[in-house]
Amino acid sequence: MDIRRINVLVIDDDLETLETIKLYLEAANSVIVASNGRQALMYAQQEKFDVILLDIEMPIMNGFKTMEQLRNLKECVNIPVIMLTGKKDKYSVMKSLTMGVDGYLVKPVRKEDLVNKITEVCNKKHQNEYRKTIMAIDDDMSYLKQLNSVLHEHYNVIMINSTKLALEYIVSHVPDIILLDYQMPLYNGVALISIIKQNPNYQNIPFIILSGNLDQNVLLDFYQYKPAACLAKPVSKDLLLEKIKMALSQRNQ
């Protein structure tokens, strides 16, 4: 993907950094800058971005909190995020990685390095569009990150930590398979699947239950919707990959 064809959101409280990044990326179709997380969230709901550059140390909301809030927006569930920060300590790097960032650059950054990293993550996203997409729904964000670490090498993984966001997401997206927990706020897993299956476009999408509560009553509740598998947490990587592969194969048949 050519960097001149992408739209970038840059979030940083340092005005000099914002001006520098705009200068570096002036060939892009659009570079929108935000000086804090709240402003960024507003822009993210108004514009469609291909990549987000995000600082860590900011007033109002730091970069970690901002990224968490961005991922709770249906518009930003799958937008690549590159941390662009002056922090290079091990904690900041590791926390960024566990949150699922797509790149980490330390300021001051050279134009060539920034352009290369943006091009890399955008090309990767474009390539991933041809892979099967798993929508993983669980109110436990730490568990979603574990799932992502297991599955991201084989599939596009959309991590969604609320049933409300899941329902908003599927309005304009059709995943290839759904993984979901049973016990969640607002709607439990059974109620959520019943709503999803009302849409003809989703009736043939397989789903797998991943839950710490799989007693007989729960299994009976799910039975009418024909889950591809019901697995008790914690589930082994090999078993999960096997069940996903089997469910996708049966759907294709």
Protein traits:
alpha/beta; Rossmann fold; 253 residues; 42% helix; elongated; single chain; five-stranded parallel sheet
What does this structure look like?
About 40% of the residues lie in helices and about 20% in strands. The protein has 10 helices and 10 strands. It has helices spanning about 15-25, 35-45, 65-70, 90-100, 110-130, 140-150, 165-170, 190-195, 215-225, 235-250; strands at about 5-10, 30-35, 50-55, 80-85, 105, 135, 155-160, 175-180, 205-210, 230. The protein is α/β, with parallel strands linked by helices and about 250 residues long. The protein folds into 2 domains: about 5-130, Rossmann fold; about 135-250, Rossmann fold, CATH 3.40.50. The chain is elongated. The strands form 2 sheets. The protein has a 5-stranded parallel sheet with strand order 2-1-3-4-5, with helices on both faces. Strands 7-6-8-9-10 form a 5-stranded parallel sheet.
